[in-house]
Amino acid sequence: MGNWIINHGLTYFILVVWMAINTFLFVWFYFLYDLGDRFIYTRHILGSALSWARAPAAVLNFNCMLILLPVCRNLLSLIRGSFMCCGRTIRKQLDKNISFHKLVAYMIALMTAVHIIAHLVNAERYYNSRHGDYDELSTALSNLGDTANTTYLNPIRSLSTTPILLVFTSIAGLTGVVITLALILMITSSMEVIRRSYFEVFWFTHHLFIVFFAGLVFHGAGRIVRGQTATDPPHDPKHCDDEVDEWGMEENCPIPQFAGGFPQTWMWVIGPMVLYVCERLLRFVRYLQSIVIRPSKVLELQLMKNGFKMDVGQYVFLNCPSISQLEWHPFTMTSAPEEDFFSVHIRSAGDWTQKLIISKEKQMSVDGPFGTASEDVFDYEVAMLVGAGIGVTPFASVLKSIWYKSKESNPKLSTRKIYFYWLCRETHAFEWFADLLQVLEREMEERGMGDFLTYKLFLTGWDQSQATHVMVHADKDTDVITGLKQKTNYGRPNWDKEFEQVRAENPTSVVGTFLCGPAALASVLAKKCVKYTDVDPRKTKFYFNQENF
Amino acid sequence: MGKIEWAMWANEQALASGLILLTGGIVGVAGQFRDWQFAAYAVAAGVFVCLLEYPRGKRNKGTSVERTGQYCFTVCVKSFGPLTRNYYVRAFIHAGICVPGGFMLATILGCVCLGIASLIYLAAAIRGEHWEPILPRKDSARKPVADSINRPPQNPPPRPPAEMRRKRAEDLEGAAYVNPIPVTANE
């Protein structure tokens, strides 16, 4: 239990606060409309469906405000940078921005459903009331507004207006249908199947959010939800509701007047909308800035840009207008901040990368850099770095930077020991990274720092012929596959043994575990971190951090 | 833009539309709205669309992810042959089903969503896509074992050292191994 609190506590606390605000808004506005005197007459026609429509509307205002914020990645990077003083745990929450975006989206979808169903009932009841299907008071209220000097309560003004006509001739109805359609299209194209396999469908359809927000801001402009306004002398519904015939003729019961509420949604969403526009402008400005490409190996791009500053493990978005004007793809940088250029290693993983690798003309634009968890590596006394396959790229940057920092004896480096685990299916992916490890291995030995970095390589996709080859060369000093002193292991790591070893060798340290790899491995490592963390603050504690794109 | 299979998105959209049509229909019937007959129709139509769209088709490229428990639905949908395989047919079926939903407010959202799904299916059909069922793979992955498994080794360890194991000229028959190729001395 204690382990769980250390690793997940702040996340769940934030979620509890968010749900508490949602619940409070729902309940507050429900009772505002269910008990407020201004709406006694409105409730007489609509019943509790009025409150059931207005309560989710308030929750929707709150969540539509929140949803734009987690996707302002430049803003988040800025906040992340400013929080360097305030502890890892707070900064870790910023890494879960997309999960929060999805959670808020689910809430919006749920509240939209409740809101629509309640308004369907309202439209039907207004229609019935207009046609005299309900009691005398209801009919009288619906008839209000037909003559001069009176204001109406029932938005259905004529007997021939059906609920469908009401929707399509009122601002609220029309905008409501349009934004709901936009929302549904955004949701169906955001399903994991579509997102992982046909990203462009997701990305371009998701821009319907512009339609969504435009419609949302105008949704209340028609002021269709009406409450009673003050008259002189005042009209008290509790006294006058049974004297319908006397309205206007008796002194204490003038004809009641109604008005719609002032539209409020724009007040909630204008701030985040402005922030998001700034975010997109910033991305566009970056798109226009020129970068220089240094000639180098085919799969590695070395780039230089004026005023570009990066930190370890950060990523950039690259755009190549000659391949596609609109596509931006994320790549982790493999160079260290101490180098005067920045590099990315690009693997052929789809049509864009393939075209990039073979094209001679490489005019490019860069957006970024954006921060991720690897920046925190140097804060931990002991770090366990796990990279699966191409997921090793952020750690290339980390290891290079550690090398530069240790050469300069940089005081910002708190790390005393690094355990590096590289899991890979095939050998041909090793080469560029193996070169780096060879260099590091040699230099560390020269400086007598052999203990600083312990690395283990795991070949998870071995077959019989490879195993035979290795058996034959088992006596050689260096590994046959990588040429490194450290031998390659075969099969997947036994994480229990690895964590035991780290704990045994570092009995009082705070260990940061960093993963860049598949979700299945993430859940395994997260569980092991919780399992091997000691509640006793003097003993070893494991913190889990995950890279995700 | 990559090899997009529109049918995958059309399927998600159609399934969502089926649920929306169903929900709108239930609200219309339960609330006893004016044109509740259209709502009753929408309930039936929504269920039908959901049953038709629940089994995901097999993708042309890449791994297909099944929805939970979709196998029995796959079998049902497969049994209709070309009616469910062809996306033109599906596009027209959905276009037809959605029309009565447009006559009542509670079901109009489902109608429009299903209409959009129908258009995406039309795009998929024009690109030549069709529905393939996802069926469980037959278990033929194991390599057949060689016959030598029935003839275990004749001379298992522990074995005496190599000098003693070597074939002796006086006792060729008593040796533990047989030369596959006849050995002759170098002349």
UniProtKB/TrEMBL annotation, chain A:
Membrane topology recorded in Swiss-Prot or TrEMBL: Multi-pass membrane protein
Recorded catalytic activity of this chain's protein: NADPH + 2 O2 = 2 superoxide + NADP(+) + H(+)
Record has Hydrolase as a keyword: no
GO cellular component, one term: NADPH oxidase complex
Keyword terms of this UniProt record: Heme, Iron, Membrane, Metal-binding, Oxidoreductase, Transmembrane, Transmembrane helix
Pfam families xref list: FAD_binding_8, Ferric_reduct, NAD_binding_6
InterPro entries: Cyt_b245_heavy_chain, FAD-bd_8, FAD-bd_FR_type, Fe3_Rdtase_TM_dom, Fe_red_NAD-bd_6, FNR_nucleotide-bd, RBOH/FRE, Riboflavin_synthase-like_b-brl
Residues in FAD-binding FR-type domain copies: 274-376
Example GO BP: superoxide anion generation
Transmembrane regions: 12-33, 53-79, 100-121, 164-186, 198-218
Cellular localisation: Membrane
Molecular function via GO: metal ion binding; superoxide-generating NAD(P)H oxidase activity
Protein name per the record: FAD-binding FR-type domain-containing protein
From TrEMBL, chain B:
Pfam families registered for this protein in UniProt: Cytochrom_B558a (PF05038)
Record family assignment: Belongs to the p22phox family.
Organism: Esox lucius
Transmembrane residue ranges: 12-30, 36-54, 91-124
Record protein name field: Cytochrome b-245 light chain
GO cellular component: NADPH oxidase complex
Gene from which this protein is expressed: CYBA
Subcellular location(s) of the protein: Cell membrane
InterPro entries for this protein: Cyt_b558_asu
UniProt keyword annotations, A-Z: Cell membrane, Electron transport, Heme, Iron, Membrane, Metal-binding, NADP, Oxidoreductase, Transmembrane, Transmembrane helix, Transport
Subunit: Component of the phagocyte NADPH oxidase core complex/cytochrome b558 complex, composed of CYBB (heavy chain (beta)) and CYBA (light chain (alpha)). Component of the phagocyte NADPH oxidase complex composed of an obligatory core heterodimer formed by the membrane proteins CYBA and CYBB and the cytosolic regulatory subunits NCF1/p47-phox, NCF2/p67-phox, NCF4/p40-phox and the small GTPase RAC1 or RAC2. Interacts with NCF1 (via SH3 domain). Interacts with SH3PXD2A. Interacts with DUOX1, DUOX2 and TPO. Interacts with NOX4; this interaction mediates superoxide generation.
Role played: Subunit of NADPH oxidase complexes that is required for the NADPH oxidase activity that generates, in various cell types, superoxide from molecular oxygen utilizing NADPH as an electron donor. Subunit of the phagocyte NADPH oxidase complex that mediates the transfer of electrons from cytosolic NADPH to O2 to produce the superoxide anion (O2(-)). In the activated complex, electrons are first transferred from NADPH to flavin adenine dinucleotide (FAD) and subsequently transferred via two heme molecules to molecular oxygen, producing superoxide through an outer-sphere reaction.
GO-annotated molecular function: heme binding; metal ion binding; oxidoreductase activity
Compositional bias of kind Basic and acidic residues: 162-171
Region (Disordered): 140-187
